[in-house]
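Weekend entry, working from home. Most of the wet-lab plans are on hold until the incubator is repaired, so I used the time to fold the two sequences that have been sitting in the queue since the last round of cloning. Logging both here for the record. First:
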Amino acid sequence: MSFAMLEHLTEIFLFPEVKEFWFVSIIGLLMVVIGEIFRKLAVVTAGRAFTHVIRIYHDDHHQLVTHGVYR
């Protein structure tokens, strides 16, 4: 999220001609923000079930999350 904001602000201040079509930039920025909020909600909802490690086998203590954004 920080890098997306940094890129957006850098383009506005250093390369304003790239941002001629403001509606496209605003839509893109909104998509980034909404996507990041959705991702954070998913991580919080998953709690201990969330990990960056891809597992092939089922752990005995693992519970499938079926509430919140995972409905």
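Second, folded right after the first finished:
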Amino acid sequence: MAKELTAIEWRSDQWLFQFGGLHPDNVLEYFSQSPFWDSASNNAILKMQTQFNDFQQSAYDLKSMVGIEFALTHQEPPALFIITKFRRSSPTKVTPISVYYIVDGNAYEAPTLYSIVSTRMLSSIKKVEEAFEIARAHAEFHPSSGYSWKETAEQKSARKAAMKEIR
């Protein structure tokens, strides 16, 4: 099971200063410094294989490899970059694993759809439980008449007055 990193915010002011901020051509290099980076990814392997020669890492080389890879999937420079972690099983088949975003130099892991839906459902269920607790506090049971609602004297007189108006 992958380590949960959605609660982490990462930033390297030194790197941003040294390289003059983020651009589409250097954002993956910046991201490779973060705790979100997988050093066993195809990107990292290709970078290590080409670091001492004249060849540059290319998208074609990544597509011919099988395994984990990172790709810049959306950009609105200089403020927003979205990076997706994929599992590549063939040159044409990729499966997204995680999505990361960089906003003004701060990198985050996006929560999964499952975690968003489960959190929303849990908070909804909590509110329903609270509503039932309130309803239970206002209900009373008598063996001869069954369940009824507890009423204050004010509520009882208001209900009776409303019933008279209806009749």
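Plan for Monday: verify the second prediction. Residues 113-137 form the longest helix (25 residues).
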